Amino acid sequence: MKQLTHFLEGFGSAVQLLFQSARFAGTLPRQRARFIDQCYLIGYTTLPIVAILCFFMGSVLALQSGYSMENFGAKQFIGSLVGLSFARELGPVIVAILVAGRVGSAITAELASMKVYQEVDALVTMNIPPARILVLPRLAAVLVMMPVLAIIGNLIGWFGGAVICKYVESIAIEPEAYFSALRRYMKFKDVGTGLMKAEIFGFVVVLICCSIGLNTRGGPREIGASVTKAVVVSLISILVLDYFVTKALM
Amino acid sequence: MTHPIHRNPITAVESPAVGVTIDGLTKNFGTFRALKNVSFSVEPGEIFVLMGPSGSGKSVLLKHIVGLEAATAGRVLINGQDATAEHTLERIRIALVFQAGALFNSLSVYDNLALYPREHRFGDESTIRDKVMRALQILSLENSAQKFPSELSGGMRKRVAIARALVMEPQLMLYDEPTSELDPVMSATISEIIATLKDEYHVTTIVVSHDRELALGIADRVGILMGGELVFLGPPANLRQPADPRIADFFHPRIDLKNPRFKNLET
Amino acid sequence: MNTAQQTARVGLFFLLGLALTWVTWETLSDGKLFKQTGYSLIAGFDNLKELKQGDEVRMAGVKIGSVERTRLAGRRAEAVLRIDPGVKIASDATATIVMAGLIGTNYIGLDLGSPGSPVLSDGAELRTKITPDINAIMTELGSLGQKLEGALGSITNTVSGDGKNPGLFQKLDRLVTDNSAKIDTTMTNLASATDKINKSEGTLGKLLNDSKLHDELVATVSEIRGAATDAKSFVADAQILVNQVKSGKGTLGALIFDETAGNDLKVVTRNLRDISEKIAKGEGTLGKLLTDDSLYLSAQSTLKKADRAIDGLGDSGPITAVGAAANVLF
Ligand SMILES: Nc1ncnc2c1ncn2[C@@H]1O[C@H](COP(=O)(O)OP(=O)(O)O)[C@@H](O)[C@H]1O
Ligand SMILES: [Mg+2]
User: Fold this and answer.
1) Which terminus of chain B is more solvent-facing, meaning fewer CB atoms within 10 Å of its CB: N or C?
2) How sure is the predictor about C330, in pLDDT bands with cuts at 50, 70 and 90?
3) B181 CA from centroid of ligand 1 (Å)
4) Rounded CA gap, A185 and A180, in Å?
5) Which residues hold their Cβ within 5 A of ligand 2, which is an ion?
6) Which CATH number fits domain C134-329: 2.30.29, 1.20.1050, 1.20.120, 2.60.40?
């Protein structure tokens, strides 16, 4: 029961924060510097880890499917399998999870520390709503950067699969055949759906992390607790949302 | 009664100075009662000094005035408007110098000061720069403009916090122990700032302080909080021979080493 | 913090994302970016079967292009092929639709044509040929079963008829002896295939996405089973006759069991002769399979694949299930 009220409280304050930030959308052009700053943090600095993880996820996926599909002579479909599963599912989810772990935790830590050390209170007394300068630029930045991260992650994942297919002896499929299989059963809609999913996940993750950060109460110890909570809630939200968004976008 | 006029030194726009009324304010944190039915008012353009031992509820009281805490009972009115109402902060500029400074750790000293004028569009970057540099000069911080809060000493942080409040050109200025970490010279400077703001711009001021000299030097009126209760309210002259023994103890503590409290310290 | 540099990086990063999205879009939606080279040819068929856009075009097994588009043109279906530049195709080269794997990737196969014949240019039409289709074989097999049944019923009655035509049995004898190995294999394969399908019916059934296909499969399997039973008893009965003839009982003696059915013999004899002659000439599917060794061998290799498919994952969809059953027969 207590858990439920906590959950509803958290959900409510996140939604409230969303509306508060949306109200200040008009101030975004003036906050260009903060927006660019957040784009840099959310997009540019997250790229290396996204690249590394997507490459290896693509490779492992190709390796596993090569291993199991060999049994019934469907190896030539590895490209389609890796391509589709990456574009529709793995790419967006991996990128969102990385954003939650790398960016979301940093956001919560920063906002929680601002809250604990009364910087947020100072902003309030200065009549500068935290939603305007702390939350809005981050939400805008994640909206712009998520599709970019997701498409790069996709392509790198596909490429990782191609590398494995070429160089692992038991599979031995030329990149050309791999990519032609990949192209055969995939429409741009599949990739587009993935980008849309990444967009939704990223937005929700940043909103959750901002909300939990700003609702931190107490001392420095609570900063750590808030970060843990933000990451856990983000991950759960990604996977739960994944189901519903996939269904809705089918 | 005619209200003194607050004149904005930059825009030269004149607005009436701000009065604060605290009416039966009570605050509970769970079962703990931090403020017990506190009532007093601060007249427009007045310097009010709030004193009391630590833990007596002074900071909590200031937070109620800026609307950061909601009262359990009673209310705080600023120019007749409820302090917790959202538009109060939009209409009346209130600056609070937090006890711990509350500087923006991710911004340089300069940007800490420039945030408010930039966000509220006081003018172009050069106007803002002039204002910020002047505030930094007043507090002898001009060499620290590009430093970050983590690179400053406690006293410097306090000064940056005061400078940041000055840049806001507030109508109501609240200081939470402004001189607690400052040397005597800097303390004197703060006293001067407070007096100047009152004389030149009719800024209403509430100072929370332990500093008896400061309090008796600049205060128009003094209030003393003890255990969440207002035990004294009146002009500083009345504090020279306080009738209440608790207040006398507060000003002239007698340390009695025979007190059982210190027994364990003797070896 | 270098804001100008940071802004530039973020800007470039964003442009990179846009560019990659555009490239992906181009590649996946109509592939203009990568397929504008080469020239196009048109191949018309009665039925394109499983052929679809993006499938390969191979000449003598080498990939030389892909199917750009499929469309209906009047009373036939056309595949527009995009042929890689530099590949010359003789005007008498013939195109067929080939099923490459058990799981149904089709491609268009071209033979080399004859040397010295003129080369096809952009927009020209290819000669095409219809290939024996695994589904057609199955259908014929079904009707073959019916024919066999008719013949069988007659034979039982005819054994005691006037039996003026011992040549018939010699013919039959020869047919059966010549092909007994093939028929035996066929029977064994058939038995094990139906058995396997029976056992894994639940799994296969679940794997079918389409209930219509599922029903078709079930019908097909029972058809095959029926054909198998019929064929088996036909051969068994024929064997009895042959044995009797061989053991010296004499044709006449062997045929004197029942005198009442004599009148039917003529009809039956004609039927049987028709069938055996057709088979011997290589007409009809069964005949082809019996006379054409290459077809038989290729069917054998397909059968092995089918066995693996059934043993292995059983996750190959309706086409595989039907195909496996059909292939196993030969
Ligand atoms: N957020 C809070 N939650 C619980 N207790 C609090 C909170 N803030 C202040 N208090 C309690 O209220 C009392 C007054 O605190 P404060 O106003 O900070 O004292 P001071 O007069 O030294 O500024 C203290 O006993 C403190 O423990
Ligand atoms: Mg205090």
Assistant:
1) C
2) very low
3) 20
4) 9
5) B 59, 99
6) 1.20.1050
